[in-house]
């Protein structure tokens, strides 16, 4: 079994790309892969989580939630003295592209503000749709008391 520890930055379509690559590598090596990805913001990078496990054929067996820290168990069955096969487990539904982008913005802002030690953010609002979206992101990231206008 391969265990792959990652800090793979988010970009749109990353989940599908990641699963395709894991499928190819598992089939090439004929080994199951446990892929562990970090979550959160670090400077200009944002990480989406989405840790998972594929079997030796590249079939998805377990998929952790995107944009949430947590533990996701992977059960292994020993099929011979040297072979361990991951068993089907929880597969969290994939996040829609728009929701994923929104989560990336919220996560990036929250972690940047918190890790920088800022007390909050100051927003200048014009009343347009862009101001409304900026305010929604800030409130979701920092709560209603973390925003000043």
TrEMBL record:
Its source organism is Vreelandella olivaria
Q: Pfam families from the xrefs?
A: NAD_synthase (PF02540)
Q: Which InterPro entries match?
A: C-N_Hydrolase_sf, NAD/GMP_synthase, NAD_synthase, Rossmann-like_a/b/a_fold
Stretches assigned to the NAD/GMP synthase domain:
104-145
Entry keywords, A to Z? ATP-binding, Ligase, NAD, Nucleotide-binding
Record's keyword annotation contains Lyase: no
Q: In which pathway does it act?
A: Cofactor biosynthesis; NAD(+) biosynthesis
Name of protein: NAD/GMP synthase domain-containing protein
């Amino acid at each position: 079994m391969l265990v792959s520890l990652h800090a793979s930055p988010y970009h749109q379509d990353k989940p599908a790309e990641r699963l395709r690559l894991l499928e190819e590598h598992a089939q090439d090596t004929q080994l199951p892969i446990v892929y562990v990805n970090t979550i959160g913001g670090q400077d200009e990078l944002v990480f989406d989580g989405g840790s998972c496990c594929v079997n030796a054929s590249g079939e998805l067996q377990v998929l952790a939630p995107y944009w949430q820290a947590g533990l996701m168990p992977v059960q292994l069955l020993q099929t011979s003295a040297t072979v361990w096969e991951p068993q089907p487990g929880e597969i969290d539904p994939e996040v829609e592209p728009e929701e994923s982008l929104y989560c990336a913005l919220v996560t990036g802002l929250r972690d940047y503000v918190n890790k920088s030690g800022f007390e909050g953010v100051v927003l200048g609002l014009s009343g347009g749709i862009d101001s409304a979206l900026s305010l929604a992101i800030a409130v979701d990231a920092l709560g209603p008391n973390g925003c000043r206008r």
